[in-house]
Design brief:
This protein has 612 residues and is α+β, with helices and mostly antiparallel strands. Helix content is 51%, strand content 19%. It is flat and about 120 Å long.
């Protein structure tokens, strides 16, 4: 059978294949569905009625849970947002500004807190947010004329709030509305409260989010079914109902409730009912619906009968409509195939001219643009060689200028040396070498002994600039002279040692290397003023930018500069990968030590591949 179908389709067009396969793929599952549907109708009415009741409750549960999740989101945001916590902790310490700058800062902090509260309550329905600090200061998104937030300290449930731990929340069931503008229209409210804690887990404030109970009851009223829905607390008292007179009372059918999500049929006063319940996990509450069994099954029976009739009717209509639409959809494909055949024969002037916005239209547009681009490339290919020759001439010219500068510097150095000023001549020589290495773009990596020469030239220039000279001691193992490293790696570290470590005073900088079977250690050490533990930790945290730590506002500017060290770390990490390590050791008055550890095996290939 399958082979016969394949034989029939192989000689047909793409359009015919699409229509035939679509009809087959629809007919088979539709016929099977109708057969199974008919077979199970009589035996599944009860199950379907339970399923419908459970489904209606599930929909209502999603809406209700979304309301509560929005409340939890607000409390979570206020509790875990770093900026918000910093501002609130500062406010909880009763800091009073004594200068205009401090007063302005306090004003800006208040504005930022209020703006954040407004921003996190923009989405969803209206909710009342109260941030209450232990010192009595409060932040709300409502006027104090509506309600005085400090009155919350006297609420009975507030005592339980202080006994919570970590991220635990206290859910407060339906209570009389405290907001003046809401009392007439919405007599009850529902709230959630949570503590705000510092690093020592001490409570410094509270956040309370409140919504009107009517938001929950409106969800019940808007459901399509005939069921009665209620929201129950852990003691089976009604927290919300479409009938406000029932709020606070025990649920009439509480004996039928189970521990978990559940649906069942039960009989009361010679009448059957379907009861369904869903637990709202993070509140400890649950939604319950009750619907008369007869009404539920009548609706299901009616649906079963109508569905079969409607399916047959609409399936016939759908088949005809699908055939028409598939022919319309595949028409541009046929057009595109014709254009492709003409292009294959060498006609590059033809275009498909299909302007639909679907994938076929995009493909057609790309095909036309490809043909346009081919014609443009044919015209541009001649000009490309001419531009290439011009670029080579420009590159040669760019190389002449630096060479001219170096030749002039060497001429000046020779004249100065002839006059007997060897110190100035040496300074010009060191400057010329540094400029040559800086301007040169050919070498991405250099041998370690070349880097040492750059450091020596750099220190010569620095010694001529400052009154007190810096002494350099080298202890380089012979086998490390040939290792390849990115150029100008040691110079930023040496510069930091001179400017920050030695404070541009006399001192000694040691450069040492040590190699073993797996790695090479490069140590740069000065005998300068060193750093205390706090500044050292700040420098280390800023060494790797991905840490995300920001110390830009630190008032203590002593110690090494992290900018040059971060640059050194990034370049070495990109050259040697995660096997590269960098560490800094320092003590006040005992100098600073920067340690670079690079892998020994394969280091040349790693670096050279980056250079290429």
């Amino acid at each position: 059978m399958v082979k016969q179908i394949q034989t029939i389709l192989s000689a047909r067009s793409f359009r015919y294949k699409v229509i035939f396969i679509s009809i087959i793929c629809l007919l088979i599952p539709a016929a099977m569905t109708l057969f199974i549907y008919n077979y199970l109708t009589k035996d599944t009415i009860r199950d379907q009625a339970l399923s419908n009741a459970n489904r209606e409750l599930t929909i209502a549960n999603e809406y209700v849970q979304k309301l509560f999740e929005d409340m939890m989101y607000i409390t979570n945001f206020i509790q875990v947002d770093a900026e918000m916590n910093t501002l609130l902790k500062r406010k909880s310490k009763d800091t009073i500004g004594t200068s205009p700058d401090q007063t302005y800062q306090l004003f800006m902090d208040d504005s930022k807190i209020n703006e954040t509260i407004d921003n996190i309550t923009l989405l969803g329905g209206k909710s009342y947010v109260t941030i209450l600090l232990k010192n009595g200061k409060s932040y709300t998104n409502y006027s104090i004329n509506e309600y005085n937030p400090t009155d919350l300290f006297h609420e009975e449930w507030f005592k339980h709030l202080n006994q919570t731990k970590g991220y635990e929340s206290v859910w407060i069931g339906s209570e009389p509305t405290v907001f003046k503008s809401e009392k007439k229209k919405n007599p009850y409210q529902i709230s959630v409260a949570r503590t705000l804690r510092d690093e020592n887990l001490n409570i410094y404030g509270y956040v309370i989010v409140t919504i009107m109970e009517s938001k929950v009851s409106e969800i019940f009223k808007n459901m399509d079914g005939q069921e009665e829905m209620v929201l129950l607390d852990s003691t089976n008292h009604m927290l919300s109902s479409s009938n406000h007179s029932k709020i606070g009372k025990l649920f009439e059918y509480r004996n039928q409730l189970k521990e978990n999500n559940y649906s069942n049929v039960f009989r009361v006063s010679k009448k059957n009912y379907i009861l369904a319940e869903h637990k709202i996990s993070f509140t400890g509450w649950k939604l319950v619906s009750v619907v008369p069994y007869k009404e539920a099954t009548n609706k299901v029976n009616s649906i079963f009968n109508k569905v079969i009739l409607v399916q047959v009717l609409f399936f016939a209509i759908f088949i005809l409509l699908m055939i028409y639409l598939l022919r319309t959809i595949t028409k541009p494909i046929a057009r595109l195939g014709t254009v492709a055949d003409n292009v294959q024969q060498g006609d590059l002037t033809i275009r498909s001219r299909i302007h639909s916005r679907d994938e076929i239209g995009k493909l057609s547009k790309s095909f036309d643009q490809m043909l346009d681009r081919i014609n443009e490339m044919i015209e541009e290919i001649t000009m490309t060689e001419e531009r290439k020759r011009k670029a080579e001439l420009d590159m040669l010219q760019a190389q002449i200028n630096p060479h001219f500068l170096f030749n002039v510097l060497n001429s000046i150095r020779m004249k100065v040396m002839v006059k007997g000023d060897k110190e100035s001549a040496n300074m010009i020589s060191s400057l010329s070498k540094l400029l040559r290495m800086t301007i040169s773009k050919e070498k991405k990596t250099i041998a370690f002994h070349e880097e040492i020469q750059i450091v020596s030239d750099f220190i010569n220039i620095m010694n001529m600039r400052q009154k007190e000279k810096v002494n350099v001691e080298l202890s380089i193992e012979e086998e490390t002279n040939s290792i390849m490293i990115p150029r100008f790696v040691l110079q930023p570290i040496i510069e930091n040692s001179i400017i920050h470590g030695l404070n541009q005073s006399a001192g000694t900088i040691k450069v040492m290397t040590k190699a073993d079977d797996t790695k090479v250690m490069i140590v740069i050490e000065d005998d300068g003023q060193g750093m205390d533990e706090e500044n050292l930790m700040q420098l280390k945290s800023k060494l790797i930018p991905s840490n995300g730590t920001d110390y830009s506002n630190s008032s203590n500017k002593k110690g090494f500069s992290s900018l040059g060290l971060s640059n050194v770390y990034e370049r070495m990490y990109m050259s040697f990968g995660p096997e590269f390590k960098m560490d800094i050791k320092s003590e006040p008055g005992k100098g600073t030590q920067v340690i670079l550890s690079i892998p020994k095996g394969g280091m040349k290939s790693n670096v050279q591949s980056n250079a290429s």
